[in-house]
Specification:
This protein folds into 2 domains: 2-52; 60-170, no CATH class. With 178 residues, it is α+β, with helices and mostly antiparallel strands. Strand 1 (108-117) and strand 2 (120-129) form a beta hairpin. It has helices at residues 2-23, 28-52, 60-73, 78-81, 92-105, 151-170, and strands at residues 108-117, 120-129, 134-140. Helices cover 56% and strands 15% of the residues. It has 6 helices and 3 strands; from the N terminus they run αααααβββα.
C-alpha cells in the first residue's frame, strides 16, 4: 500500500510541476524554487502517509497467534524475576529475554523504531507474523530536556522508557513497582 501511495503521489507531483512550469514563464531560479517547494511538500505528505499506515489488510492469523502468545505471556511476574533494580522492576532487557522465545514459538516478531513527524518524535512499533500479516502503532515520545544535563541523554532516556512501556503493554506484561 505504501508503494501505491508513493507512486501515485510522485506521478501527481510531476504532473503539477510540469503544468505550472509551462503555464508560467518563470526565470530559472524561480523555477528551481517552485520545484523544490513542491518536492518538499510531496516528501512531507509521503512521510505522513507511510507513518499512518497501520497494518496489513488481513490480520486473522496475526491475531490468532497473538492470542496464543498472550496466554503464554500471562504467566510472567517480572516484578519478582526482573534483574533490574534488585528485582523491584523489569528492564527492557528482562522483558525481551522473557518474551522473545514466546514470540518466536508463535511465529511473531516485534520491532520498534523512532520516527520523526512534523509535531515531534514518535516510537513506531510493528508486530509481524510469519504469514506476512502485521500491525503497527505509534506513540509520541515526550522528552524532559529541562532536568537533563545532556539533550542526547534526555532523548535516550525517554526513548528507552517508551520502548519498555510499549513492549510491556503490547504483551500485557507487568513490569514491576514503578
Amino acid at each position: 500500500m505504501a508503494d501505491e501511495i508513493i507512486d501515485s503521489s510522485c506521478r501527481d507531483a510531476v504532473k503539477i510541476i510540469n503544468t505550472k512550469l509551462t503555464q508560467f514563464n518563470l526565470e530559472s531560479s524561480s523555477k528551481i524554487d517552485y520545484v523544490t517547494a513542491k518536492l518538499e511538500d510531496v516528501e512531507r505528505k509521503l512521510k505522513a502517509a507511510i507513518v499512518e499506515e497501520s497494518g496489513s489488510k488481513e490480520q486473522d492469523k496475526l491475531l490468532a497467534a497473538l492470542s496464543k502468545c498472550l496466554g503464554d505471556m500471562s504467566k510472567a511476574d517480572m516484578e519478582r524475576t526482573g534483574a533490574g533494580n534488585r528485582g523491584n522492576y523489569a528492564t527492557l532487557t528482562d522483558l525481551t529475554i522473557f518474551a522473545m522465545p514466546i514470540l518466536e514459538k508463535h511465529g511473531l516478531s516485534f520491532r520498534m523504531e523512532p520516527i520523526e513527524k512534523n509535531d515531534g518524535d514518535y516510537l513506531r512499533s510493528v508486530l509481524g507474523h510469519s504469514s506476512g500479516q502485521w500491525n503497527s502503532s505509534i506513540c509520541k515520545i515526550t522528552v524532559d530536556y529541562k532536568n537533563a544535563q545532556d539533550a542526547n541523554q534526555a532523548y535516550g532516556k525517554a526513548l528507552s522508557y517508551m520502548k519498555k512501556y510499549v513492549f510491556g503493554s503490547y504483551f500485557c506484561i507487568h513490569t514491576g513497582k514503578e
